[in-house]
Amino acid sequence: MNQGFIRVAAATPKIKVADPEYNAGEILKLMSQGAADHTKVMVFPELSITGYTCGDLFLQNSLIAGAKEQLKVILEQSRDYDMISFVGLPWQHRGKLYNTAAVICRGELLGLVPKTHIPNYSEFYELRHFTPGRQTVTLIDWEGKLIPMGTNLLFACTTIPDLILAAEICEDVWACCPPSISHACAGATVIANCSASDETVGKDSYRDSLICGQSARLVCGYIYANAGEGESTQDLVFGGHNIIAENGTRLSVSRRFGHETIYADMDLERLAGERRRMTTYPARAMISPVSYTSVEFSLNREPLKLRRFIDPAPFVPRDSGERNRRCEEILSIQAMGLKKRLEHTGITHAVLGISGGLDSTLALLVTARAFDMLRIPRDHILAITMPCFGTTDRTYHNACIMTERLGAKLREIDIKESVLSHFRDIGHDPDNRDVTYENSQARERTQILMDAANQVNGLVIGTGDMSELALGWATYNGDHMSMYGVNVSVPKTLVRHLVRYYADTCREDELKAVLLDVLDTPVSPELLPPDGGVISQKTEDLVGPYELHDFFLYYILRFGYSPAKIYRMANHAFGEEYEKETILKWLKVFYHRFFTQQFKRSCLPDGPKVGSVAVSPRGDLRMPSDASSRLWLKELEELS
Fold first, then answer.
1. Which CATH number does 320-637 carry?
2. Which residues are annotated as catalytic?
3. I need a surface site. Which of 447, 478, 554, 578 has the fewest CB within 10 A?
4. How many Å apart are CA 351 and CA 363, to the nearest integer?
5. d(CA 579, CA 581)
6. Is 5-297 a domain of CATH 3.10.20.30?
7. Helix, strand, or coil (residue 256)
8. pTM for this structure?
9. Is pLDDT above 70 for 284?
10. Could you give the maximum distance between any two Cα atoms of the chain, in Å?
11. Strand positions, DSSP E, 143-202
């Protein structure tokens, strides 16, 4: 099972203008290479059998006939290639010439898709030679068989679920109403574009954004193959700018000014899942006045060793500039959410627990920003440090210095005696360091925060992040509870970058130094006594690495992938860092905890959504608290 992944290609052969025999040979070379590389879909440029720049030679019978003859050669010699290809050529039908894409699979001509929008402006004068294609599908005779010709053709693979192809040609995608819109609405998941777009200054950037944008708008894969070296340079230059995109993400792009073949492993399950999730995406049964003809074909399903880049940190942009912009935007969303809540309630004080850890640090930074927006003095923020059995000097001092440097009010309340008194009340032995020992501290801290908030008429700001909520790594009615949770949809891997961004842009040296030390501190709830003065309880030793859990979380909630697919992708993304057995171990832990801990997420306090994944029971995750995980865990056991 390839779990929806298929290899696709956009190929630019080096051609000779008006030499179909030579061009067919170059096309076949690239088809052979693609087939050997397990490519299932290959797209060639517009009019690639003849060349796009033939001009009035398109009026010559010899060129039109020669193109057909070479199509026969391509069909004959590609019989053993297990892929579907789109090849451009001129086609005469009922006395008119059409600019078409021939759709080829295993030596058969499946159909001809004519160009809809024929440009006749600036450097283009195609109407001199070609007639616009029609949506209505007609049947043409080809070697004694009736072949469909028309723009409204879908090519559906019977052996690869979700592989439904359609085509448009060059200018079609530049038009105000591209054919690919109706193709996608009719069910096409992958659009092939045979193109001959010449190069002018800056056009490549626009072309790139156009193709990526169209793939995003249509939630589809888009394979754009452009004419390149060999086309006439009498008036124009063609750069062979090939692009493969998937739902707005550029998977592969060629260098310009050559003849390059680019490959990408496309994820059809991602496209199908996204369409299923979007209630505004039209159902195929609801389409349109204009009917489509579906042509079936089959391809072998074979193992595919992924070459697709799978980002191990899907919540964190790789580019530093984009990452900084993202961090600034998230901090603004968090602060704006809190600002509105404070304005609505008329509250001018905030209370939060400050531990010297990452989450409470981010919450304090966000609260300070919200207060600045409202022009409320920062000393109306009450940061309470509540040392107990597991508190270390390092985190304690960081919490104190940070609060002071941000201008908030610091209050220290040692909770050891309160917790010990509580142990006596319930008959718990303090030497028994079980979950009661740990959670009693968390609940005592929450009680103090709530009561202190009553004292100052303030709002308790939650500090827990989305990764902890996904795992249920929070004490119910302890740190799980607040009056507004600013970090509720920020994953742990992103929390770190937000604090780093604040440190990097901070002008105050002492605050920056503290933030950097917080970043250096192991993640811990500090509920067990330190070992030699240092943190003894490290969260990631107990529940697993957050970078793995955030990866699992993203693909489970964002795309609904199966456990086996997530395991495969995680191995691909983290193969050099974690053993397969380690990844499987923590994936099982994630699924188990994710299902059993939903009851904590079902009653989350309010908090702002910042990204495409969130766990709010009022928004993104309507999941029953008592759902069974058996189906998912069984699939993981079968991988063991």
1. 3.40.50.620
2. 46, 115, 170
3. 447
4. 11
5. 5
6. no
7. coil
8. 0.89
9. no
10. 101
11. 145-149, 153-157, 164-169, 190-195
